[in-house]
Amino acid sequence: MNAIAALLIFPGGLFVLFGGMAYEWADRKLVARLQNRLGPRWFQPLADTVKLLAKEEVIPSGVNSFLFLGLPVAALAGALTAALYVPLAGLAPSYSFPGDLIVTLYALSLLTLCTGLAGANTSDRFSLVGATRTLTQLFSYEAPFLLALLGPAMATGSWQINQINQYAAQHWLLVAQPVGFVVALIGLMGKLELPPFDAPEAETEIVAGALTEYSGRGLALFRLGKNAELMIGLTLVASFYFGGIANPLEFFGKTLGLLLGLSALQTLMARLRIDQTVGLWWRYGALLVLAQWLLLILAQGVMA
Amino acid sequence: MPDKFIIPIGPQHPALKEPGHFEFTVDGEVVTGASVRLGYVHRGIEKATESRNWNQNLYLLERICGICSHTHAMAYCLGVEKLAGVVAPPRAQAIRTLVGELERIHSHLLWLGVAAHEAGFDTLFMYSWRDRETVMDVLEGLTGNRVNYSANVLGGVKVDINGQQSDSIRKGLDFLEERTRHYLEVVTTDTVFLQRTRGIGVTTNEQAERLGLVGPTARASSVVRDIRIDAPYAAYAEYPVSVVTEAAGDLEARFIVRIKELFESYRVIREILDKLPEGELQARVPRRIKAGETISRVEAPRGELFYFIKSNGTDTPDRIKVRTPTMCNMASVLALAVGHQLADMPMILVGVDPCFSCNDRSVVINGGGDCWTWEQLRQYGIDYYRRKP
After folding, report:
1. Is residue B158 in a domain?
2. Contacts of B122 in chain A (CB under 8 A)
3. Which of A132, A196, A274 sits opposite B192 (nearest CB)?
4. Would you list which residues of chain B are within 8 Å, Cβ to Cβ, of chain A?
5. Which pLDDT score, from 0 to 100, does residue B3 have?
6. Nearest CA of chain A to the CA of B293: how many Å?
7. Which of B352, B320, B277 lies closest to B50, judged by CA?
8. What's the CATH number where B293 sits?
9. What is the pTM of this model?
10. Interface of A with B (CB under 8 A)
11. Mean pLDDT rounded to a whole number for chain A
């Protein structure tokens, strides 16, 4: 019974779906206010989702319809699975085992992978370019992002999210590993394709990128998946670098604080071209994190 | 070749606010070929002018462009006045110039926002359009309209400026000048934005001359070409502007030229307000215009706007031909596209500040063939539908 509740209601199902929409609203509202706009009303993401779910789903000709319908489901499932292992709302994760950090990160990557495949599945030219860009971007930010989240894991000496969270509660890793924090935060922006890393869905070039052909239910599921990922990603970064998450108050305070930073970064910059994105990650992101790792290993060696 | 991968931009596309069709052949992300098809918003205005009288045409021609409506009306008025042998009074000419410069401010700020949006820099877009409202309000206060001001009549202007309006214009300009200084700083120092503009779409001076570019697009490649200086019209001889050029020829230079022109406009408007001549607003223009033909050139915000006007001595024109600056600049988009990345295409396209509905004239496709008579066309139509299954 508990297992079903964990999957369907908290933290896996309804909580993440609605929480994700709330975070999407907060993000959109913050960006809008920073850009001197009014921004959406609080129920706008919900209204969008309901509308999309109710709409007819057009399956374009020339696609594998099994993949076309299945990929959004897989993408959302990946994001919801990841929710089971992170300390959402400041409560202990429903499931925990040594090494769940790796599983979570891969579950989160499933969304990007599905988006890329969904784009490559259709014969739309915007989708194909979008899919290429999505996957190129995946390869550029994924490694630095992973390394940035493994930094706290190394400091803790465990690859279990719950233990890292407890360790982080005693140590503000933001101070000890500032480079890792920056890379993790910016990596999260790359993962969510937020500006300036929105080249894969640059509307002035390729309309909606990989998801151009999606309408109705498929688009709704992808959007829900992305919202869930925003919430989970913020939770991970906040619990690792912002002194852990021990109760709901800390959870909301820290993730929303982080979201404010994320929104400010989004408004500050113009869109990067895809080659610039790749260059940024491999020339600076990856190297900086690796340098920090080296220091970490040396420091641990000296102390031991 | 079937293995070409072509990205179609338009006729309906988020990057285009008006319909036009571009086909970019890409190899990965790099553009290897480009072609354009225009004419989706051809409205037959030139032909329509021939069935309206000289006064009615003023209303029609002002609607060629929604952004530089005043320059169209001004070019037409100056041409018709030249044909009729009438000179508008100095106060009218000064007010025409003033509205023309206000329009340039609104057009350049609009372009700044659109160009920033194409680069994914929506914050600059939102802020520059918010500030653009100031000049829109000024124009509304002056003429009663935000878009098609209809400040001109044949032989003068409709609107006068009183002290109160003069003060509100000055207040608006002070605010805008401060903001413009900020935007100049943003486009020349923002590292991320410069990555998208510096060294992108470089047009050399020779290229600009060969392609016959006009307006700020040409001036960004250090081509000194500005009708306000080369052939002063309206009141530009009394209130001279100085030409703004940049040497680099890239997108950044186009931003700098347009923003620096804003400062020039602020200065000229203040000068006009300081030294506005007293007198009449309108001179009388006869209903029938003497037979003859003339050209009239003005500097629209996008470059040289050219009017050819022919009268046969009646109350309707015999022929009016308009050449808008976008037409001259469109060639540079295709010339620059090859070798750049797909992501730069919207920026390069918007870099010339295209205005499609101004630009779309009658289109001749595969021209040079025989002319069909009405009877032949009708027969062709009948045969076509008979052949159809």
Report:
1. yes
2. 35, 195, 267
3. A196
4. 5-8, 13-15, 26, 28-29, 116-124, 126-127, 130, 190, 192-193, 195-196, 341-346
5. 66
6. 44
7. B320
8. 1.10.645.10
9. 0.86
10. 34-37, 125-126, 129, 132, 195-196, 198-199, 202-207, 267-276
11. 85
- Enumerate the H helices of chain B as residue ranges: 45-49, 54-62, 69-84, 90-118, 122-143, 163-189, 191-197, 205-211, 215-219, 227-230, 251-274, 325-337, 345-351, 356-359, 374-387
Which residues on A lie below 8 Å from B192 (Cβ)? Answer: 196, 268-270, 272
pLDDT at B1: 42
Specify if B335 maps to a domain: no
In a domain, B207, yes or no: yes
Q: Which residue has the tokens 């500030």?
A: B131
Q: Which is more confident, A176 or B298?
A: B298
Q: What is the residue whose two structure tokens read 């653009």?
A: B132
Nearest CB neighbour to B342, from listed A195, A205, A268: A205
- Residue ranges in chain B whose pLDDT is less than 50: 1-2
| pLDDT at site B369 | 63
Residue B56, classified by CB atoms within 10 Å of its CB into exposed (0-12), middle (13-18) or buried (19+), is middle
Closest approach of chain A CAs to the CA of B168, in angstroms?
Answer: 24
- Predicted local confidence at residue A94, as pLDDT: 75
Three-point CA angle A135, A285, A244, nearest 5°: 100
Confirm whether B96 is domain-assigned.
Answer: yes
The total of structural domains in chain B comes to 1
Mean pLDDT of A256-270: 89
Q: Is the pLDDT of residue A99 over 50?
A: yes
Please tell me which of the candidates A125, A195, A205 has its beta carbon nearest to residue B343.
A205
Amino acid at the residue A46: L
Query: Which pLDDT score, from 0 to 100, does residue A51 have?
Result: 92
- What number is the average pLDDT over the span A64-74? 89
Interface probe for B, chosen from A28, A31, A133, A271 (most Cβ of B below 10 Å), is A271
> Taking CB atoms and an 8 Å cutoff, what residues of chain B touch A35?
122-123, 126-127
- pLDDT value for A80: 87
Residue type, A62: G
Which residues constitute the domain of residue B165? 50-308
- Report the pLDDT value the prediction gives residue B101, as an integer from 0 to 100: 92
Choose from B24, B29, B31, B131 for mutation: most chain A CBs within 10 A.
Answer: B29
Out of A36-45, A276-285, B43-52, least confident range:
A276-285
